[in-house]
Amino acid sequence: MVEKKLVAVVLICVVLSVGLVGAVMALNQKDNELQTKTNQISALENDKLTLETQASNMQSEKLTLETQVSSLQNETTSLNNEMTALETQVLSFQTKATTLENEKNTLETQVSALQTNVSSLQSEVDSLENDKLSLETQISSLQNEVTSLESEVTQSFNLGYAEGETEGHQLGYDEGYAQCAEDLTENGWVLRDPTYDEAMAFINSDKTDENEYTDDYVCYDFTADFSDKAFQMDYRCGFVYIEFSDSAHAIACFNTTDMGLIYIEPQNDEIVTLAIGQQYLGYIIVDLGIIW
Ligand SMILES: [Ca+2]
Predict the structure, then answer these.
(1) What is the structure's pLDDT at 3?
(2) Is 3.30.460.70 the CATH number for 191-291?
(3) 188 C-alpha to center of ligand 1: Å?
(4) Which of 48, 74, 85, 200 has its CA 20 to 30 A from that of 56?
(5) What is the CA(212)–ligand 1 centre distance, in A?
(6) Residue 162 binned pLDDT confidence (cut-offs 50, 70, 90)
């Protein structure tokens, strides 16, 4: 009996040992599992923190992007407004361009018309210029004719005047001289020829040469006054008539007792020489005579 109890106790002890070992092993396994779970939780918490940080970062990026989007939207609106304004300006410029094109066309039409007018006027100017040249030629021809006729008239007048004047003076002088000679005879005066010195002294003292030549006081008047003064000195003085081809002239002369005949120009007191065919005062002498 004791042995059976011992065996039962041994068996119970073995069963209990086995149960204990099993319980310890189970406990160790649970402990390991718990440790593993704890490690997993810790890892998951770390992941969670990482994810939260990333979420926060992404939130910040989202805000930044939203700000950028808003800014870009504002810029887009502004650019749209500018584009609208520019489109309006383009339309305005296009309108102006059309207006200017129309004005240009109008001006070109006017220029063309004016060019036609200028061309027409130039033709008229050319025609008038030709008429003017033709008239100038006619005027020149007529002026030449007038000058020629005037020259003929002047020549005819001078010739007639000179001839008439010479004849008139000669006639008057002859009559006057005859009357003078008569008077002298009646009064007992006798004229004589001066000496050369007397003649020169008289010429120098006489003032006839200081008279002024005018239309009414000509060469015959100088000679007549000079002769009168000579007569008052009792000097015989000759009236010299000189004929040119188309005019005439008169001067005085003395037949000096010692030096012979001298001719005096009473307008300037010069002693001159005369001969037919020679020049006097720039004209050829065609005839010459002395009335004593
Ligand atoms: Ca004099």
Answers:
(1) 77
(2) yes
(3) 28
(4) 74
(5) 13
(6) low
Among 168, 181, 148, which residue's Cα sits nearest to residue 241? 168
| pTM recorded for the entire structure | 0.41
Q: pLDDT digit string (tens) for 165-216?
A: 556 655 655 565 556 555 555 555 689 999 999 999 999 999 999 999 999 9
Question: Measuring CA to CA, how many Å separate 99 from each of 88, 111, 244?
Answer: 17, 18, 90
Q: What is the DSSP string of the chain?
A: -HHHHHHHHHHHHHHHHHHHHHHHHHHHHHHHHHHHHHHHHHHHHHHHHHHHHHHHHHHHHHHHHHHHHHHHHHHHHHHHHHHHHHHHHHHHHHHHHHHHHHHHHHHHHHHHHHHHHHHHHHHHHHHHHHHHHHHHHHHHHHHHHHHHHHHHHHHHHHHHHHHHHHHHHHHHHHHHHHHHHHHHHHHT---BPPPHHHHHHHHHH--GGGSPP-SSS-HHHHHHHHHHHHHHTTB--EEEEEE-SS-EEEEEEEEETTTEEEEEETTTTEEE---TTSEETTEE--EEEEE-
CA of 260 to the centre of ligand 1 (A): 20
pLDDT at position 34 over 80: yes
CA 47–ligand 1 middle distance (angstroms): 159
Q: Where are the domains of the chain?
A: 87-161, 191-291
Q: What's the pLDDT score for residue 271?
A: 97
Count of Cβ atoms closer than 10 Å to residue 286 Cβ: 13
Report d(CA 245, CA 162) in Å as an integer.
10
Are the CB atoms for 239 and 250 separated by under 8 Å? yes
For 249-267, the pLDDT digits (tens) are 999 999 999 999 999 999 9
CA distance 18 to 83: 93
